[in-house]
Design goal:
The chain is an alpha+beta fold. The protein folds into three domains: about 110 residues, RRM (RNA recognition motif) domain (Alpha-Beta Plaits, 2-Layer Sandwich); about 80 residues, 2-Layer Sandwich (Alpha-Beta Plaits); about 120 residues, RRM (RNA recognition motif) domain (Alpha-Beta Plaits). The strands form five sheets. Strands 11, 12, 13, 14 and 17 form a five-stranded antiparallel sheet that branches. The chain has a four-stranded antiparallel sheet with strand order 1-2-3-6, covered by helices on one side. Strand 11 and strand 12 form a beta hairpin. The longest helix has 18 residues. The chain is elongated. The protein binds one DNA strand of 7 nucleotides through strand 12 and strand 14. Belongs to the RRM elav family. This is (raccoon dog) hypothetical protein. InterPro entries: Hud_Sxl_RNA (IPR002343), Nucleotide-bd_a/b_plait_sf (IPR012677), RBD_domain_sf (IPR035979), RRM_dom (IPR000504). Keywords: Repeat, RNA-binding.
DNA sequence: TGCGATT
């Protein structure tokens, strides 16, 4: 029955996507996408969506959630003010398969010390263990809120590495104390448990010269590391620390603004989401149109949260051929006050 | 060769 519901919502999701298209920017202040995790800032019932497809951006998600209920406009998202609606979104959308990934929807938890750093990195697991097996192995230490087994990109086989997030740090500590260095039943190898690296610590800020010399990711290529980034309070992230004095092109406190030139007359926001989404967290896209004709004036902007991802997108998409035109992609500059 | 913003 739930499956049937999902199918029908999947259909309405597509329609909602286009219906809501003109109101995308409304979303900027009520919800956002960061490291592939979608956050709703709802007044009474915050929700968090996990494991999103790489190229699904905020307008898609907003539309998706709008499809629970009437889905008439962007503002409806903010109106998950009843527990019933929030629960309906969780029940209907969690587990929904989108582009071969199952999304997970749950209530967002208020940030607190007790739930911080509760994510474990586990290696040396038998390659035969599935995500379910791993959860079974660790469930006795506490409530598991998220887990995943890493697989080899080419073979699809387990790498013997998993992430398991517990509800509380104390539970994760209990698992380390009891299991670290022990051999699972029937396995010759001991497993290693440690706290997963927090992406806000040891932030590795690559310089532009390093970035541009690294192999450019092909357009459309997935960003495999994204889904592993958990465990931070999204509102408090300071992406600029460590970058001051290095390079501030295109930077704004809200992200890195990218300028795209040579778009066709009929370019739309959807193509920008599709092009930039695979490189990382995109918070906003805009196609600049003539007010009277509503045709694209040949350029647009994309805002990305993380410098590295923005630089990679630029390096990869600059020169990309779209609709018979060669795109020019760079950080936005201030041409106006010249 | 072009760098916005109509909540």
């Amino acid at each position: 029955m739930l499956r049937k519901q999902c199918q029908s919502h999947r259909g309405s999701f597509k329609k909602a996507l286009w219906r809501n298209f003109s109101q995308l920017s409304v979303l900027g202040k009520t919800a956002f996408l960061l490291n592939n995790i979608f956050y709703f800032i709802c007044r009474h019932h915050d929700l968090t969506a996990w494991c999103l497809p790489q190229n699904m951006a905020q307008e898609g998600l907003r539309s998706l959630f709008s499809s629970i209920g009437e889905a008439e406009s962007a503002r409806l998202i903010r109106s998950y003010v009843t527990a019933k609606d929030a629960e309906g979104a969780i029940n209907t959308l969690s587990g929904l398969r989108l582009q071969s990934k199952a999304i997970k929807v749950s209530y967002a938890r208020a940030s607190s010390e007790a739930i911080k750093d509760a994510d474990l990195y586990i290696s040396g697991l038998p390659r035969t263990m599935t995500q379910k097996d791993v959860e079974g192995m660790f469930s006795r230490f506490g409530r598991i809120t998220n887990s995943r087994v890493l697989v080899d990109q080419t073979t699809g086989l387990s790498r013997g590495v998993a992430f398991v997030r517990f509800d509380k740090r104390s539970e994760a500590e209990g698992a380390i104390t009891s299991v670290n260095g022990h051999k699972p039943p029937g396995s010759p190898e001991p497993i290693t448990l440690k706290f997963a690296a927090n992406p806000n610590q040891n932030k590795n800020v690559a310089l532009p010269s390093q970035l541009y010399h690294s192999p450019a990711r092909r357009f459309g290529g997935p960003v495999h590391h994204q889904a592993q980034r958990f465990g931070f309070s999204p509102m408090g992230v300071d992406h600029m620390s460590g970058l001051s004095g290095v390079n501030v092109r295109g930077n704004a406190s809200s992200g890195w603004c990218i300028f795209i030139y040579n778009l066709g007359q009929d370019a739309d926001e959807g193509i920008l989401w599709q092009m930039f989404g695979p490189f990382g967290a995109v918070t906003n896209v805009k196609v600049i149109r003539d007010f009277n004709t509503n045709k694209c004036k040949g350029f647009g902007f994309v805002t990305m949260t993380n410098y590295e991802e923005a630089a990679m997108a630029i390096a990869s998409l600059n020169g990309y051929r779209l609709g018979g035109k060669i795109l020019q992609v760079s950080f936005k500059t201030n041409k106006s006050h010249k």
